[in-house]
Amino acid sequence: MSAGPEVSLGPGAAVLAVDVGGTDTKSALVDGSGVVREVLRRPTPRDAGRTGERVVDEAAAVAAELAARHPDVTPRALGLVVPGIVDDERGVGVWSENLGWRDAPFAEAASARLGLPVSLGHDVAAAGWAEYRLGAAAGYRDALVVTLGTGIAAAVLLDGRPYRGGGLAGEIGHARVADGPDCVCGGRGCLEAVASAAAIARRYTDASGIQVPGARDVLAAMEDGDAVARAVWDEALDALALGLSHVVALLAPQAIVLGGGLSHAGDTLLAPLAERLGALLTFHRRPALVPARLGGDAGVLGAALRARDVAPSAGGGA
Amino acid sequence: MSAGPEVSLGPGAAVLAVDVGGTDTKSALVDGSGVVREVLRRPTPRDAGRTGERVVDEAAAVAAELAARHPDVTPRALGLVVPGIVDDERGVGVWSENLGWRDAPFAEAASARLGLPVSLGHDVAAAGWAEYRLGAAAGYRDALVVTLGTGIAAAVLLDGRPYRGGGLAGEIGHARVADGPDCVCGGRGCLEAVASAAAIARRYTDASGIQVPGARDVLAAMEDGDAVARAVWDEALDALALGLSHVVALLAPQAIVLGGGLSHAGDTLLAPLAERLGALLTFHRRPALVPARLGGDAGVLGAALRARDVAPSAGGGA
């Protein structure tokens, strides 16, 4: 599950990293040589209206626990990444529908609590940054790192830098690619409503009357010859290809990295998607379509990279 | 026609600027206080297979002419912008279908000929940069400057910088927004095939049997109550709104500046386009839709800005 031992950040400050997810929170301690010493995974604390404060409590608890077990590593900064709309510059979690905070001053609160500089970032953006610096997008100057999970969103990496658009960039899941169905965002025919893992399962159930727990089951049915599953999957691929063709026309990325749950479909996804995307392009720069490399650890590694950016340069750590 | 006297680049090096268009070439002399002293407009030289060389000849001739008329201004650099695919970094005109060059080493050739540092750029990108620095997009950090003319293309300005994607960014005219018609690029249903000025005129003629010289005549017919003209214009607006909605989802620009011939339609374009775009958006950052301010001089002003970037800093000019 953990990519920790396989990936090194290289020499720099020792840092703490915390990636707050909708279900679980992952925390990591990175030493001065860039080795991830330990990754902890715990349920994300939830406390109606106070989840933001509990996240900071949890970061402090994890910091103490990791300090006790790794006394030779003294972290110099914390990278904290959270979902929703995030204002990196002010260090504020602007809004999370799922976790229920609004204008949560994470950076300030965590810094006061831990006595460390804190960099707050967005989970999808941080995961994308990690893939760009350490993973599947390394070596490409212009890239998109797309998360195909319950939702669909992307990190935009251009000319060596993340592009954030005030925290609202990368919402490719909410651009219209079909005449329907309705999307949770209030739109219609959004990419996410057709091609996310959740949408694929839901659309299969709607069309077949068969309840399935997830997109994986739809893929399994398709491989057993289920024509409804095939139609749902093909529509998802068409929608993804169309959405990505707009990205290619606008930004001409050299690579599009695909991560998130659906990307585990491997060549069942990549090969037909590349074919459909290719059919939509003419003179455009054709991006490499590549699977994400850092898996579920991309977010916490991105948090660690952020932490290093704010660590005092003198604090080389352990 | 000329925005010259109204726009100042501010203090800096005196420079020459040349904007090579498909029909005309504009050249300007900017003095050390940033005032555009003169703008010349001449037919773009054409010489089968040698147009690239003739462009450099023309730049040298214009430089001599301007020097004779403005002996008090000594330009320290040349900014040259050309259409097609341009490699800014190497200073090479990679390809122009319209003007017929391939791998033309403009920067090197012009520099040898004029004895000045030369910055080569792309015409649409340079016009966008001028609108971003001096025109309608000034004051917005993240913006798109769209040219709606014979073709449709955009300059992408993000976090204070132009994004070029290896010279292939901004090709929003070649993303699919409809089931048809065929596009010159080999694609189908491209934005440019539905909503460019040329497409609007062509589609009106196809549907009505009435020959028209341009989109302006289709708009005039619409205002006289012509239902075919109305339908063609509405389809163009729908296509533009859909294409721009993908841009908004991906980049969340604060402003989208509309220039090129079609933008002269003013509120006939802007008001219904804003309404249609608004209907496609939900939580997204809604961009200001604003008309370009620099008109046909945007390209040559962008060339002048590029020239200033390569002018020797000691050479403050006149």
TrEMBL record, chains A, B:
Protein name per Swiss-Prot or TrEMBL: ROK family protein
Q: Which InterPro entries match?
A: ATPase_NBD (IPR043129), ROK (IPR000600)
The record's section on PANTHER family has: BIFUNCTIONAL UDP-N-ACETYLGLUCOSAMINE 2-EPIMERASE_N-ACETYLMANNOSAMINE KINASE (PTHR18964:SF149), ROK (REPRESSOR, ORF, KINASE) FAMILY (PTHR18964)
What Pfam families does UniProt report for this protein, alphabetically? ROK
| Origin: domain of life | Bacteria
**Entry similarity comment:** Belongs to the ROK (NagC/XylR) family.
